[in-house]
Amino acid sequence: MTTQTIKTVYHLFPLGAIGNREVESLEEWIPQALRLGCNTLLLGPVWDCSAHGYDIRDYDKIHPNLGNKQRLAAVLAKWKRAGFGILFDAVLNHCGRNFPPFVDLCKHKEQSMYKDWFKEIDFNGNTPCQDGFSYMAWNGCYDLVTFNHANPELRAYLFNAVRLWIEDFDIDGLRLDAADVIDTSFLAELASFCKNKRPEFWLMGEMVHGDYRKLLQNARLDSVTNYEMHKGFWSSCNDGNLFEIAWSMERQFGKQGVYRGSNLLQFLDNHDVMRIGSQLSNRAHLWPLHILLFTVPGIPAIYYGSEVGWLGEKTRDSDQALRPALIPANLAEGPYPELQEFIAKLARIRERTSFLTSDCVNNLKVCAQQFAFAREDSAGNLGGIVAINLAAEKVMLPIVIPREQRHPGRHWVDLLDPSESYCEGDDGFCIRMNPCFGCILAPSASSEQLC
């Protein structure tokens, strides 16, 4: 699986989604993911843990709620036969306190053979857990013990775990949890290890802040979670300030964009952040936001349930509302079940429209509540135009096409509504946009006749 073969990612969090049901219930999501136009499954943590999936205690044992390795492998084989690539959520930065080597450390202290597996062990210190020594806790969470990736025995242990995942489950790639705080030399070695086993094995790093090139170039990963755009998506809507998302798009994917060609993962929400339906002040903005999601450079991802605007708020102490037990049959009970058909339409347009696979944008018109940008190829040729409108009323938005790209008499058709068409004048044309919606404009091959 390569970045070019990933169309749209469907993100499931199995420890939440299946609730008290059997692991085989994950099969029920296959038709739903296909319906949305997805061809890649990102599966949240599946390993034995103490609480939430990221506090692993056994890297070779499935969580009891998910049955056993054989049953999960059989389920994933059905996803593969349906045409999906499979990505595992890999927690390689830290473990849970019940991870056997850490339990050994707690018992034997300085005499433990695993004392160098973990970061910043200090036998003169202590922790809130009264361990009699201190260690680096991920993000201050003492139920998550940070690994020392400089230790060769630990590296060998983790690489072997990944090897078994590939062999036992036929996975195609990994999402690397907390990749932004993992030593890049470890990640680069991991990338070499995985690609030696499978040349097209795909690695995506979770990075919330900072320069993504740290992981894309130094660690040789294939993709990174685009949290900058994620924040810009919803806050531009809530603030009525599309200048924010326009600035991020220009910085990332403009002519001098720092991430051109990187194919970052684009998402409106996931298992760690508030559901987009709950995040938006005006839920009618779900429609223009999804237009953006499927038309900016990168790989769009849909988090289970959010295709119908499922609600869920993150609290200070719990992410449980973000990871609900849910079955596809209940999606019709979501606030906006009609949204999923719109997402499927966007996915079809994206798959069939060549200019939406380019890596460059050019902002054409930016207002507080309207935004239009061009998708261009590497040579600067104009492929298509995308525009969105956050306002609660219809808007006429003038578009000025750059001089070197003008073609007076060229005909433009809205792929979202082919009955809407425009004839390009000397310097551009004016777009008619419905409230809280947008358009995806492509030049018509028979433009002169239609004009």
What is this structure, in a nutshell?
Helix content is 28%, strand content 21%. By secondary structure, the chain is of the alpha/beta class.
What does this structure look like?
With 451 residues, this protein is an alpha/beta fold. The protein folds into two domains: 313 residues, TIM Barrel; 95 residues, Immunoglobulin-like. Helices cover 28% and strands 21% of the residues. It is built from 13 helices and 20 strands. It has an eight-stranded parallel beta sheet. It has a six-stranded antiparallel beta sheet with strand order 13-14-15-20-17-18. Strands 3-4 form a two-stranded antiparallel ribbon. It starts with 8 loop residues before the first strand and ends with a helix. The C terminus is likely disordered.
Number of strands: 20
Distance between the termini: 43 Å
Residue share in helices? 25-40%
Sum up the overall morphology in one term: elongated
User: What is the number of domains?
Assistant: 2
CATH superfamily of the largest domain: Glycosidases
- Characterize the largest beta sheet: strand count, sense, and whether it forms a barrel: 8 strands, parallel
Give me the CATH architecture of the largest domain, please.
Alpha-Beta Barrel
Low-confidence stretches: 446-451
Q: Strand order of the main beta sheet, please? A: 10-9-8-5-2-1-12-11
CATH class of the largest domain: Alpha Beta
Q: Find the structural class using helix and strand composition.
A: alpha/beta
